[in-house]
Design a protein that fits this description.
The protein is mostly helical. The protein is built from ten helices and no strands. The longest helix is centred in the C-terminal third of the chain and has 42 residues. The chain is globular and about 55 Å long. The termini are far apart.
């Protein structure tokens, strides 16, 4: 029996491919706009939102999407031109962590007897545990996020590179920023189901960081980031399937981080060779 014959692997590949594609596209703009700290904050929001839903007896996905999208939009509205500043993010970070501790305590004391593994799932993901329905829903949501980002990619790129000029040319910079943060929130909620809230930032940032190292052409970078995200997820799932003791979330992030480090070394080596002085020809 091949790896693709197992239903749990089929579900993981279906959901994971869509989510990795969305992470690659969203992550590219997140890194380009220097908003990685926002993604880090939303990873903690995902944890808190999921635990809040579990504590009150709801499906954790309700908490994931409500919290991440809601907080992302709030940060965009309160921030400058749709961008959350570091002070705002820091305050949200501290507030959300405090709420997370509260909901964790509430959940473990009142609801954990019904599903004792749910809290661990929130932290580390459960891509091999997705049902066919959940995998299909995740794939459709991720496809919608990717499609929306492709639609707004051109004006968002303009606003990301020079928002002052973009605003002067009539680009709705603030609205675009808020919409983009909402897409980041939805992507964070989806990615939390694959790698968990602790590691989701790696799935969003690593492929994008690698793409920015390899090319300075935005559309090429978007394509590379998306392709890397999917390839790294597939590789991580294959490694985890082969080495059953290795959690899939760790394997996926390990591959993504290794590729990023390799790209960093490659670009630095190439740059040092270009800058190295050339020995004068013998005269």
């Amino acid at each position: 029996m091949t790896v693709f014959a197992h239903p749990f692997m089929q579900h993981a590949l279906l959901a994971g491919t869509g989510i990795a594609l969305a992470c690659g596209l969203v992550g590219y703009f997140l890194v380009l706009r220097a908003q990685v700290f926002t993604g880090d904050a939303l990873s903690h929001v995902a944890f808190t939102g999921a635990l809040a839903a579990l504590a009150f007896g709801f499906d954790l996905r309700v908490g994931l999407f409500t919290a991440t999208i809601g907080i992302a939009v709030m940060m965009g509205v309160l921030g400058r031109r749709g961008r959350a500043d570091d002070v705002l993010i820091g305050n949200v970070f501290a507030w959300v962590l405090g709420l997370g501790v509260f909901f964790l305590t509430l959940y473990t004391t009142s609801r954990s007897t019904a599903n004792g593994t749910a809290g661990v799932t929130v932290l580390f993901g459960s891509i091999f545990g997705l049902s066919a329905g959940r995998a299909t829903a995740a794939a459709w949501i991720a496809a919608g996020v990717a499609l929306l980002l492709v639609v707004i990619a051109r004006p968002l790129l303009f606003a990301s590179i020079d928002e002052t000029v973009a605003a002067a040319r009539g680009v709705p910079v603030r609205l675009l920023g808020i919409l983009f943060l909402a897409l980041v929130g939805a992507t964070a909620a989806e990615a939390a189901q694959v790698v968990g809230s602790l590691l989701l930032l790696g799935l969003i940032a690593a492929p994008a960081g690698t793409a920015l190292l390899l090319t300075d052409r935005p559309y090429h970078g978007l394509a590379i980031s998306a392709a890397l995200g999917v390839a790294e997820l597939w590789s991580g799932l294959a490694i985890s399937y082969t080495a059953s003791s290795m959690p899939p979330s760790f394997a996926i992030i390990a591959v993504a981080t290794t590729v990023y480090l390799a790209a960093t070394l490659y670009t630095r080596h190439g740059r040092s060779r270009r800058l190295a002085p050339t020995a004068p020809a013998p005269g």
